[in-house]
Amino acid sequence: MNKKTLVIQNPRMAGMFLACGFVLLGRKKDLKNKNRYIWIFNDTPKIREVMSKYNDFKMYVAENISN
Hints:
2 helices, 3 strands
């Protein structure tokens, strides 16, 4: 069985996934920037749904902070 994975570069998003109960498969140094890490999760419809809500929330905050 070949499961797909999702690589996250944003530490806040990775933290939100962990807080929501998603299992962290691994954390590694970013090959492009040795000062950063990447977080690896199973790519599921549920994690994509949470990711979408995270992005919607960021856009909502950005739109309303300037008002």
